[in-house]
Each structure stands twice: as C-alpha cells, then as structure tokens.
Amino acid sequence: MTKRTRNWFYYRLSQALSVLLLFLCLTYAESAGADKVKVYWGGVGFTGTWGERDQLYPYSSRFLCMPQSDCRAGNIDKMARDRLAKKKFDNIDITLSMIEGIIMAVGITSEVLGITKDIVNKREKFQHVYRIFGSLMFYEFRSGKLIKNVPIIIRYTTHLDAPANDNEKFDIIKNLLSSDSFGINFFDIMYQQSKSVNLEILPAKQTQITEIRLSKNVSDIMEKRLKLANFKTQVAQILESEFVARADAPLIPSDIGGKGNVIGGKIKLRFADAEKELNLPEAAFKIGLDLRLFKKFQAIKGPQKTVCHAVAVTLRLADEMGEITNVKFARVQNSCGIASVEQVFDPTFYFPESLFALIQNIT
User: Fold this and answer.
1) E strands, 121-185, where?
2) Cβ of 110: how many Cβ atoms within 10 Å?
3) DSSP state of 259
4) What's the predicted TM-score (pTM) here?
5) Residue environment code for 7-44, b if the CB has 16+ CB neighbours within 10 A, otherwise e
6) What pLDDT does residue 8 have?
C-alpha cells in the first residue's frame, strides 16, 4: 500500500466512522411489547400557516373538503382513507369510527414544481419535476404531543411541449393524490414506507434537523429561482425524509429557525373541520447541513458537451455540549451529463437536483 493509498484509506475510514457516530445517536429504546397498538384515524391536514396555502400547497389544498365547500374538486380525506387508513399495518390497528387516544393523521407539508427547458430526441421540451412533501403523524389526542413522525416525498417527472398551465398542474397533483395513472400515488407510497411503523419502539433521545446554511456562492444561484428561506425548508424536508426512509433513523420534524412548518417547538395542522397544534419533543441531538459549493464544469467535444453540476456539503451533528462531528461530502463525476452544444442548462434547476441526489447517497 503506497503512502497516497494509505492516506486515502484512512480518510475514507474517518468519514465512515463519523457517519457511524451520527447514526449511533439515532438509536431506539427497547420494545415494550408485541401487541398491536390501536390508533384512530384523524384525516388529512395541512401543516404550517393555512393563509399561505397558495405558496405552500396551491393545488392539493383545493381538496380539503371544508364544511362551507362543495368538494367538487375532490376530497383529500377520502383519497387518503381509501389508500391508507383502510390498509393493514404490521403493528397498529386503525379505527375509523371515533377520535380519541392516539391519532394517526396525514400532514401535507408543501408542493414543489421545477420546470426547465430540455432537449429530448433533438426536440425542445420542458421538463417538469413535481414533488409532494408530507408526513404520517402519530400524536396524543388530548395533549397534542407528537409521538412519531414518518416524512414522505414523492417525485414525478414529465416532459411537455410547453410549460404547464394552471389547469395542467392541478390535474397532475390530483392524479398523484387520487389515482395510479402515473404509476405512483402519494398515499400508496406513504403506506409502503410506514407499514411497519411501531409505536412501542421509540428513540431514547430525539434527533432533529435544526440548521441549513448556504454559502454566498449557493445563495447567489438559488435566490434567482425562489426565496432562500423556502429553499432551506425544501432541503431540510428532503434530508429528513431520506434519513427516515433509507436509514430508518427516527427524526422529529425539522425546525430551521422559524423558517419552516415548525415554530417554537410546535406544528400546526389545518384539517377540514378544525385546527390542531402539536407539541414536539425536545431534541437532544441536532443535525445541520452546510451547502458549501455549487460549481459547473463543462467540456466541449465536437457537436456535444459534457456538463457537470458539482455540489459539496458538510453534514454536522451536535448535542447540548456542542458539535460532535462533521463530515464533508461531494458529488462531482456522477453529476455529469452529455448534451448538444446548443443546450442551455438552468443552474437553479440542475444544482438542486444534483444536491438531492447527493443527499440520497449520504443517507
């Protein structure tokens, strides 16, 4: 083993040990029993400030069948009940008739749509990437104490001849919530990822994502597309969902300084007939993510070019005493693609997509 190889080996080993230390902090307490826990179906709510629904979830919020509405667009409670609440879970029994004890409810967090011009088979197309963010939440009815949270994201990509209009966007979101026409359904994915949820296996100490930091380089790029606070919230939600889905790590909803859906240790849910405020447990361990660099590399050869949207981040873990560890990650070679020389890449679209792929690789 050469000196260079040995140094590289120890560098990778230190990275692995640091990540292992992070996940050792995301530990569970021992199970208290084997019987199924009875929970009561609470319906679908929308987290955050309902008055900002046109910015947070402009299309799915139209399906909240409130008493004064005619519900002609559809009823999101029925969509979720048919595909989620009526299913069999491994460790819980769901009761639909009354509300008491432990409540199981869906919280829709946000919708995000990215559109960019693309070239498909030498024809100009517009790539649309839809994401719906949400959580399956379990909480005590009377106290409002959150017991468990299973965050979910679904992603759907399509190419159109022109940017989608409002009706087309609405139809896409409706199909993702109510049907299988695109081969993916939000509530089906939620069921698949939460089928084995166990309310008797809870973390000994809670962990939460509490900070997303952007370098000036990243801020200068992303502020051209959306508010930086909204971008930080998206990153936190994706990091949270990937940790839970891929690493089976228990996390409470992220709180990045009052810029997301959690404010002051509480999260609001707007249901069809009421509003509920949930109390989050205090986090003993805190995760932060620093977005250090977005950098484009390009090489032209004849009629084609190779374009890379490289991203670099630092993942941090801290407790009450201060920072425990930090690990640097980057995505360079895997961020590359080949295109015609004429094709123009929107950095505000491709850098976040590269970042989200890196987050998946980290988890």
Assistant:
1) 123-140, 146-160
2) 24
3) S
4) 0.85
5) eeeeeeeeeeebbeebeebbeeeeeeeeeebebbbbbb
6) 46
Confidence band of 9 (pLDDT split at 50, 70, 90): very low
Any idea which of 15-24, 47-56, 139-148, 150-159 has the lowest mean pLDDT?
15-24
Q: Give 171's Cβ-side CA count (13 Å radius).
A: 7
23 φ/ψ angles, rounded to the nearest 5 degrees: -75, -25
Residue pLDDT, tens place only, 141-181 = 999 999 999 999 999 999 999 999 999 999 999 999 999 99
**Residue 124 three-state SS:** strand
Strands 275-279 and 285-301: unpaired
Structure tokens at 73: 């667009």
Could you give the 3-state DSSP secondary structure of residue 189?
A: helix
Q: 17: which residues sit within 8 A by CB, 6+ positions away?
A: none
Q: Which strand (E) or helix (H) includes residue 93? A: strand 92-95
Q: Coil, strand, or helix at residue 224?
A: coil
Assign residue 257 a region (left: φ > 0; alpha: ψ between -120 and 50; beta: otherwise).
left
CB distance 46 to 80 below 8 Å = no
Q: What are phi and psi of 174, to 5 degrees?
A: -60, -45
DSSP letter for 281, please: P
pLDDT for residue 31 is more than 60: no
Three-state secondary-structure class, residue 318: strand
Length of the chain: 363
What distance lies between CA 280 and its chain's CA centroid? 18
